[in-house]
Amino acid sequence: MIRFAHIEYLYALALLPVLVVLFLWVLRLRKRALQSFGNPSMLHRLMPMESGSKRTIKFLLLVSAIAFLTLGIANPQIGTKMEEVKRAGVDIMIALDVSNSMKAEDIKPNRLENAKQEISHMLDKLQSDRIGIIVFGGDSYLQLPLTADYSAAWLILSTVDVDVVPVPGTAIGSAIRLAMKSFVAGEQKHKVIILITDGENHEDDAIAAAKEAHEDGTIIHTIGMGSPDGAPIPIYQNNIQVGYRKDADGNVVVTKLDEQSLLQIAEAGGGKFIRATNQQSELDAVLKEIESMEKKEFGAKVFTEYEDRFQYFLAAALLLIVAEFYISERKNRFLMKWTIFKESP
Q: How confident is the model over 95-117, as pLDDT tens digits?
């Protein structure tokens, strides 16, 4: 298990592309300035020891040193000892709709990305609860079994898109039933399903599935993604929008939020229905409901001891800085005597 003791310092890595752009801009300005003095071939004769490649190498060494220095300051740590600790919480299963309609952009940037960002914010606030992830379209798939490892949840969440479920459609009832199978068998409480979808159910009886889940002691909250007015479903090729999805008659398909269905599912599941907005704060209300629930105690294996590894990165940064310092921007006279690649007259 690898973690960073000061992960906030990693934001400094965002400066590296800026430095690269600045370096290329300076090279361009320098080239223009030299061209204003005369013919490039004449300038090469006047400055035979000038080496453009060495200047680039020095810059790359310096940028690499900054990257290693940033990683060293962030202090990467490796877990060396794992222990089972007792935690008190509830089991939360997130069922995320990944059907094509979730690409509609009536919520920015689109329904699916907005939902993923909301889940990510919720993960930041969880402490002792276990979480699992189910994705569904025309069928349902368990992406992450119940776990207290939130880093695994972040990793799985980052890979979720509409193409992870090959079966088209929206089977909400199937997702609820799969979530029920994913909980610990025999428990009659401490279970929550958070259903995140636009509510356009085309496959099964979701309300009946919600009632079955609630009778088994599970609370179901629904988060409605989209707007009642609806929006077309964009089609992208190579990150460029090329049109909208159309039906068999050639009409643009408009997907609308089905608030009534999601409200009925939440009522059948003993939970709340919340309509999503661009504020991405809807799951906060769900978390308050979860915090008020009775907690159960369970064991979770976590790393309790970590060893620092910052010294390796700082050493690499120091070596790169020293190398950059001793490399001259001028050509080496000894190497210039070798004319292996020089064309014969």
A: 999 999 999 999 989 999 999 99
CA 330 centroid distance within chain: 45
Q: Which of 2.60.40.1930, 1.10.860.10, 3.40.50.410, 1.10.8.10 is the CATH number of 83-300?
A: 3.40.50.410
Distance CA 62, CA 133 (A): 42
Joined together, the tokens standing for residue 107 give 């919520």
**DSSP letter at 22?**
H
The pLDDT of residue 261 is 92
Is the pLDDT reported for residue 89 higher than 90? no
Residue 206, CB half-sphere, CA atoms under 13 Å: how many? 28
User: 283 pLDDT exceeds 80?
Assistant: yes
Residues 309-345 pLDDT 10s: 899 999 999 999 999 888 876 655 554 555 544 445 4
Mean pLDDT within 141-155: 91
Per DSSP, what are the bridge partners of residue 236?
241
> Rounded to whole angstroms, how far apart are CA atoms 40 and 35?
6
Domain ranges of the chain: 2-75+309-336, 83-300
Is the pLDDT at 81 greater than 50? The verdict is yes
CA gap 195, 192 in Å, rounded: 10
Q: Within 10 Å of residue 13's Cβ, how many Cβ atoms?
A: 13
DSSP one-letter string for 102-136: GG--SSSS-HHHHHHHHHHHHHHH-SS-EEEEEEE
Q: How far apart are CA 328 and CA 337, in angstroms?
A: 18
Q: Is the peptide bond before 40 cis (omega within 30 degrees of 0)?
A: no
Full-model pTM: 0.66
171 in Cβ contact with 197 (< 8 Å): no
